[in-house]
């Protein structure tokens, strides 16, 4: 079996605030193989974006700091890279597409010039060659009349077209890994489908891996090969997309899916509130909101990931050998006891 393209293990990233130290990412581990799509899912504040920005050390320092863990990309630990080595990886072999394309584009330069600059940053080519490559990229991502529209400015494009321009910029370095952080959240459903189809086509063409951040489980079902479920900076569950949707193992994953239309008789919101990142609960981070929690869930630390199947693991004490996994596996979501809300 070949090594994963990206292997994140025991990643911990904190932020110093006036309230104390925020444990944004706390011992997160996952792999991304060449040519596959891995989705990081969870509620807002679960640590998805911070985990992705930590991969190439994009977090602002201070107040942020990667305090522990390994981030191995194509056999090299990114944490050991010098600033110059990191610049060669960032945007070249690992590229990002963020949620708001307007923030990624300079309003005073034409989109063609901005894509061409990305090309020249990563490749030693002339301005005319970079311009030709920029037009090719804009055409490939679906910008009509790319030769003409390359001279237009960001405000002259719709939100969906601006996102296509940002994707073209990300492709300038011909990356092995594309990290897409909620790239379709601000788009309507029709445009979202077009962007997702574009990413899938580009992935097939280039054998490119995609790490996709989203809270939209409908998108996850459509594009993911594997899924990593995060809650309050911890991995609650990981497995193939079929594992996660067909037989979710962790109570948090089950609760997320119960919020998805069509998964039951009625939508069931998750009771309670997200754990305080400065002072998270002892034991399992999800136990104050979990309908199956016992005293052991509160007393022990975050349970290690236990094997549910060969391809699925959950951070839940009910999957230990001395416990009955049927209590949670396949259970219908229940209301949270009032005393724990």
UniProtKB/TrEMBL annotation:
<keyword id="KW-0472">Membrane</keyword>
<keyword id="KW-0406">Ion transport</keyword>
<dbReference type="InterPro" id="IPR003593">
    <property type="entry name" value="AAA+_ATPase"/>
</dbReference>
<dbReference type="InterPro" id="IPR050388">
    <property type="entry name" value="ABC_Ni/Peptide_Import"/>
</dbReference>
<dbReference type="GO" id="GO:0016887">
    <property type="term" value="F:ATP hydrolysis activity"/>
</dbReference>
<feature type="domain" description="ABC transporter">
    <location>
        <begin position="6"/>
        <end position="257"/>
    </location>
</feature>
<keyword id="KW-0067">ATP-binding</keyword>
<dbReference type="InterPro" id="IPR027417">
    <property type="entry name" value="P-loop_NTPase"/>
</dbReference>
<keyword id="KW-0547">Nucleotide-binding</keyword>
<dbReference type="GO" id="GO:0005524">
    <property type="term" value="F:ATP binding"/>
</dbReference>
<keyword id="KW-1278">Translocase</keyword>
<dbReference type="Pfam" id="PF08352">
    <property type="entry name" value="oligo_HPY"/>
</dbReference>
<dbReference type="GO" id="GO:0015833">
    <property type="term" value="P:peptide transport"/>
</dbReference>
<dbReference type="GO" id="GO:0005886">
    <property type="term" value="C:plasma membrane"/>
</dbReference>
<dbReference type="GO" id="GO:0015413">
    <property type="term" value="F:ABC-type nickel transporter activity"/>
</dbReference>
<protein>
    <recommendedName>
        <fullName>Nickel import system ATP-binding protein NikD</fullName>
        <ecNumber>7.2.2.11</ecNumber>
    </recommendedName>
</protein>
<keyword id="KW-0813">Transport</keyword>
<comment type="subunit">
    <text>The complex is composed of two ATP-binding proteins (NikD and NikE), two transmembrane proteins (NikB and NikC) and a solute-binding protein (NikA).</text>
</comment>
<dbReference type="InterPro" id="IPR013563">
    <property type="entry name" value="Oligopep_ABC_C"/>
</dbReference>
<dbReference type="InterPro" id="IPR003439">
    <property type="entry name" value="ABC_transporter-like_ATP-bd"/>
</dbReference>
<dbReference type="Pfam" id="PF00005">
    <property type="entry name" value="ABC_tran"/>
</dbReference>
<keyword id="KW-1003">Cell membrane</keyword>
<dbReference type="InterPro" id="IPR017871">
    <property type="entry name" value="ABC_transporter-like_CS"/>
</dbReference>
């Amino acid at each position: 079996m070949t090594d994963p393209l990206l292997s994140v293990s025991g990643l911990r990233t904190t932020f110093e605030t006036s309230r104390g130290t925020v444990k944004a990412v706390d011992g997160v581990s996952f792999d991304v193989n060449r040519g596959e799509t891995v989705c990081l899912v969870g509620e807002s504040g679960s640590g998805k974006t911070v985990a992705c920005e930590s991969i190439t050390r994009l977090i602002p320092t201070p107040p942020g700091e990667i305090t522990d863990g390994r981030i191995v990309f194509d056999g090299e630990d990114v944490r050991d890279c010098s600033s110059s080595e990191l610049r060669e990886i960032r945007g070249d072999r690992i590229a990002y597409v963020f949620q708001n394309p307007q923030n990624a584009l300079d309003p005073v330069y034409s989109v063609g010039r901005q894509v061409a600059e990305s090309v020249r940053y990563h490749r030693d080519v002339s301005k005319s060659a970079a311009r030709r490559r920029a037009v090719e990229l804009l055409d490939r991502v679906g910008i009509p009349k790319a030769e003409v529209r390359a001279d237009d400015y960001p405000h002259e494009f719709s939100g969906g077209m601006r996102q296509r321009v940002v994707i073209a910029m990300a492709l300038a370095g011909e990356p092995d890994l594309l990290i897409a952080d909620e790239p379709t959240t601000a788009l309507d459903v029709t445009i979202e489908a077009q962007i997702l189809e574009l990413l899938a086509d580009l992935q097939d063409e280039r054998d490119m891996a995609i790490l996709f951040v989203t809270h939209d489980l409908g998108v996850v079902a459509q594009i993911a090969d594997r899924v990593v479920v995060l809650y309050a900076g911890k991995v609650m569950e990981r497995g193939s997309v079929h594992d996660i949707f067909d037989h979710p193992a962790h109570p948090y994953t089950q609760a997320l899916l119960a919020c998805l239309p069509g998964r039951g008789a009625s939508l069931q919101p998750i009771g309670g509130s997200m754990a305080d990142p400065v002072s998270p609960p002892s034991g399992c981070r999800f136990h104050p909101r979990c309908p199956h929690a016992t005293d052991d869930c509160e007393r022990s630390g975050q349970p290690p990931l236990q094997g549910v199947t060969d391809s699925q693991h959950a951070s839940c004490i009910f999957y230990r050998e001395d416990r009955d996994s049927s209590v949670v596996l396949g259970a219908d979501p229940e209301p949270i006891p009032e005393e724990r809300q």
